[in-house]
Each structure stands twice: as structure tokens, then as C-alpha cells.
Amino acid sequence: MKSTLKIMLLLSVPFCIHGCGGDTKAASITEPSDIKYTVIHGNSYLDGGMHLTSKGSRVFSSQDAYQNELLNYSSDQPVQVDFTKSKVLLLDMGQKATGGYGIEIEKIADSNDAAIVSVALVEPGSGCLVTQSLTNPYEFIEISTNKEILIEEKLVLKSC
């Protein structure tokens, strides 16, 4: 419960919005991460009638919880995760009216008490050509840690 509360507090911090004249390559520049991670599932487009969701994040510490949540997003087969050494983080941008949105992990840093996940939420700029269909960008990430997971988000406006 404590970790969920801390994550929700971090999510409530206002986004750092970059204007069109800013560095548009910021989302593609990644620093080496202190903690090993793997994106195990992710997509922007709806997969076979899966439902649209709201923006949010969740941390899973068991195979059953992760598998049950994956059913809401994809028909992918779940990956076998060793939850004695790892956790699974779900990042969800929620329903979007067009394509062009995405999630990029910039770094996962190891601090004394937590693993800090730095995430760029990418949105298309006004000049971008995007698909005209409902999308729901999400990623399931396996993170090699047993520490609490905290999330830092920034909004990146992509110019085309």
C-alpha cells in the first residue's frame, strides 16, 4: 500500500512540457541504466478487442497478478519471471484518439531505498501525420530489483 501511495504521489507531479522549439531527440537519447530491465510486452494499438484503459502504472510481485493484468492488454503469452529477483512494472498512457504516442524508458537508477524509473511520455506535435484510430500505449517491463519502484515522468512533444 505504501509503495502504491508513493507511486501515485510521483504521478501527480506536473509534467515537464517541452515546446516545439526544444530538443526533439531527447526521448531517443538513453543513458546506461544502473538496474537491468527488459520490455517484455508493449503496444500502442488495440489487440483483438482488448479494452481501452486509463493512464496509470502498477507494480507486480507475482506471476499470477502479472498474467491476469496482461489479459487486459494483449493476447501475448506471459513471460516466466523470477519474482524472487525481479518485479514487473506496467506503464499505461491510457486511451489516445490517434497514433503517434509512445513510452520510452530513459534510465532505471538504483538509489538506497528504491529503483527510480525515468520515463518519457512521447506525444506527436501539431505537424505530425498520425493514424486516425484509437490507441492505448503501454509497456510491461521486467526490472531486476526487489526494491520499491518509483517513477519519474516527463512529457516530450515530438516535432515531425
Describe this structure in words.
This protein has one domain. A 4-stranded antiparallel sheet has the order 1-6-3-2, sandwiched between helices. A 3-stranded mixed sheet has the order 4-5-7. By secondary structure, it is mainly β. It has helices at residues 2-11, 63-70, and strands spanning 37-45, 56-60, 87-92, 102-110, 114-124, 135-143, 148-158. Strand 4 and strand 5 form a beta hairpin.
End-to-end CA span: 41 Å
Report mean pLDDT, rounded to a whole number. 81
Provide a count of the helices: 2
- Class per helix and strand makeup: mainly beta
Largest sheet: 4 strands, antiparallel
Backbone shape: globular
Features of the shown structure:
160 residues; 2 helices; 7 strands; disordered N terminus; 3-stranded mixed sheet; 4-stranded antiparallel sheet; single chain
Outline:
The chain is mainly β.
SSE inventory with pairings:
Elements: H1 2-11, E1 37-45, E2 56-60, H2 63-70, E3 87-92, E4 102-110, E5 114-124, E6 135-143, E7 148-158
